[in-house]
Amino acid sequence: MAGNQKFPSDLLFVVGLVILTDIFVLTPALNESFIRTVLGLPMILFLPGYSLVSLLFPTKNTLEGIERAALSVGTSVAIVPLMGLVLNNTSFGIREIPLLVSLSVLIVLVCAAAYVRRKQFPEEKAFEISFKASARNMLIEIMGKPESTTEKALRVIMAVSILALAGSIAYVALLPHEQEPFTEFYILGSDGTAENYTTEYVQGESGTVIIGIVNHEHSTVDYTMDVRLENKSLPLPETLKHIQLEDNMTLEKPLEITPTVKGNNMELQFLLFNETEKNVPYRDLHLWINVAGEA
Hints:
By secondary structure, the chain is of the alpha+beta class.
């Protein structure tokens, strides 16, 4: 007969960790803290899988602790990309907040379902982690008296491995790592979205695109831009021919395109050059356009 257990401490810990992660990511005063990174790692690499494994294996005798942990990591690695794929096919896209909310809702709901499943079993059979007992057993395993020289060596290796892993995680989480320098270069439609580009023109008449440049080069950069139709340069305003941007600055400006020749499936190129290379484009984009004869 099923017992009337209280909410399991391991599932309660998972839900609490999810809520804490949400607070550190969504609160402006906290989301620059290294704690956000420390909390974000298990949110992606462990908690989704652990909640699902808890639902699928609700009893103690189905999985050993190490198997449950390994399966939790592997399942998380499978769940998160699938969730990203789903979000990518919605209006939300793969962005931080939609992914965080989706993961949080999934984990909490699956933990609730896992609790319901565990309630169907007697308390002595339902799986639950006692953190105090787990820590004590781990300490005994690592520090207990070895039975042989080989066992002693294995325990030393285990202890060193655990310390190395903890140190690596702390290094990644605590020390700032400078991002590789790069420049974002993009074009938007006249409505400011990455769609609805003008691709049908009439010779001599104009259409508008929005040019976007974001400098992440860690220094001020002088850019030059060239727009070519069928490899012939089109006139540009001076503000877009020569552009100086400080680090982390963004430029977005509308640009009127006026084709002077007619044709179908013509390549309209947007070429961005940096100050170190004047002949080879640093970034390039293109649209394929049709230009009808003058009305």
